[in-house]
Specification:
Blueprint lengths: L1 H19 L6 H10 L6 H12 L4 E2 L4 E4 L2 E11 L12 E11 L5 E3 L3 E4 L5 E2 L9 E3 L4 E10 L4 E5 L9 E5 L3
Parallel strand pairs: 1-11
Antiparallel strand pairs: 2-3, 3-4, 4-9, 5-8, 6-7, 6-10, 10-11
């Protein structure tokens, strides 16, 4: 508990220091400004439209690997299961099994199981369904084959992967249910 509290305080202090620092453009911003002002013959328009297109998040599919915050996520499989937990508080239309691999490329131990969110075909966020789900932690430089079960109303699904304590954008995987 003390480690988590210390980590949260360190993160908040880092954010405060960044917010209070001078507002200097980075060298990549300088390069972009130089590129945008080179000519007035339409190059500026094409670079702006390229920026607009790249602002949409890239989506991945089954078998792809994405890295977020030094952590690599690979969506291995998404399948429907007939298995049910008689003590579950919900009765979803279907339960999907999400199989994925996590490789910890960071220098810190990371939690596993709270690093993904699942949205069904209607865009609703789904809760973890109480079956044999992978929960725990992963040491630096190690891999794990993980599983999460989710009760959904309809497919296809979107799976968002990102470490529990991360300010980076998640990796988004779209998958049809087998």
């Amino acid at each position: 508990m003390k480690k988590i509290l210390f980590l949260l305080v360190a993160i908040l202090l880092s954010i405060a220091l960044v917010a209070c620092s001078e507002d200097k453009p980075s060298s990549s911003e300088d390069n972009n400004k130089a590129t945008n002002t080179k000519t007035d013959e339409g190059e500026n328009d094409s670079s702006e439209s390229a920026e607009e297109e790249s602002s949409e998040p890239k989506t991945f599919s089954i078998g792809d690997t994405a890295e977020v915050g030094g952590i690599k996520y690979t969506l291995k499989n998404v399948s429907q299961t007939d298995e049910r937990n008689e003590f579950a508080g919900t009765e979803p239309a279907m339960v999907v099994k999400v199989e994925y691999e996590v490789e910890n490329g960071s220098e810190e131990e990371i939690p596993i199981g709270a690093d993904l969110e699942v949205y069904d075909g209607s865009g609703s966020k789904m809760e973890l369904y109480p079956l044999d789900n992978t929960l725990g932690s992963l040491q630096p430089g190690k891999k794990i084959q993980a599983v999460g079960h989710f009760g959904i109303q309809e497919g296809p699904i979107e799976v968002y992967f990102k470490p529990l304590i991360s300010f980076e954008e998640p990796a988004i995987f779209k998958a049809d249910i087998k």
